Amino acid sequence: MKSTQRGKCFIEYIPAENAWIPIEADGYMYIDCLWVSGSFKGHGYSNDLLGACIEDSKGKGKQGLCILSSAKKKPFLADPKYLKYKGFNVCDESDNGIQLWYLPFSENAKKPKFRECAKHPHTDGDGYTLYYTSQCPFNAKYVPIVEKAAKENDIPFKAIHIDSREQAQSAPSPVTTYALFYKGEYLTNEQMNDAKFLKLALK
């Protein structure tokens, strides 16, 4: 039977040593995504999902949880207001404003941190450079569309598909699902289609 409810409600987490982001957080669980939308909002499901994650992580002997966010809400990153409400604190921050938040299970738990490559996001080359993975929120399908738009408008553009954990953990940005640079400087983690990209590039 098909549900009449419309929306999404899920949490994804993984031992931090296996996470596809450049962090040092041995013994922690990393939350890839905590997402509640549509008709599921406002019913306490975020609390339920996070509570289950905490219980499971403690049962596995983890030191705590960590997750990406920012001082102000950014696309596809956790809401900092919610994290603060649930007891998380910032333990590291990169030059581009992306923050690593953590919820330790004990007072003596070591703070997670970004790897040095992610602390100062930068990449070589002229024009636009995009680093991306095939992970949620599944930006990969839009990359050929942006590549085509860039080529048709003579805009220098290079896409680098991160396809291994090792590559992700040495990426030049805390966000690996989608990180767009221009002339070496970090621009955004916001997913681009052809219209958004051209508006950015041709302004």
User: Alpha-carbon distance between the termini?
Assistant: 49 Å
- What is the helix tally? 6
Would you tell me which CATH topology of the largest domain applies? Answer: Aminopeptidase
Strand order of the largest sheet: 1-3-4-6-5
Helix-strand topology string: EEEHEHEEEHEHEHEEH
Which CATH-level-2 architecture of the largest domain?
A: 3-Layer(aba) Sandwich
Q: Uncertain regions: pLDDT < 50 for 5+ in a row?
A: none
CA gyration radius, whole angstroms: 18 Å
The level of helicity is: 10-25%
Give the CA-based shape: globular
* Biggest sheet character: 5 strands, mixed
Task: Let me know the CATH homologous superfamily of the largest domain.
Answer: Gcn5-related N-acetyltransferase (GNAT)
Structural class: alpha+beta
Count of discrete structural domains: 2
CATH class of the largest domain equals Alpha Beta
How many strand elements?
A: 11
Instruction: Estimate what percentage of residues fall within beta strands.
Output: 25-35%
The chain-level mean pLDDT equals 90
Would you kindly provide a brief summary of this structure?
With 203 residues, the protein is of the alpha+beta class. The chain has helices at 45-59, 80-85, 116-119, 143-152, 165-168, 194-201; strands at 9-15, 23-24, 28-36, 64-70, 89-93, 98-104, 113-114, 128-132, 157-161, 178-182, 185-188.
Description:
The protein is of the alpha+beta class. The protein has two domains: 9-115, 3-Layer(aba) Sandwich (Aminopeptidase); 121-201, 3-Layer(aba) Sandwich (Glutaredoxin), CATH 3.40.30.120. 23% of the residues lie in helices and 29% in strands. It has helices at residues 45-59, 80-85, 116-119, 143-152, 165-168, 194-201; strands at 9-15, 23-24, 28-36, 64-70, 89-93, 98-104, 113-114, 128-132, 157-161, 178-182, 185-188. The strands form three sheets. A five-stranded mixed sheet has the order 1-3-4-6-5. The chain has a four-stranded mixed sheet with strand order 9-8-10-11, covered by helices on one side. A two-stranded antiparallel sheet has the order 2-7. It starts with 8 loop residues before the first strand and ends with a helix.
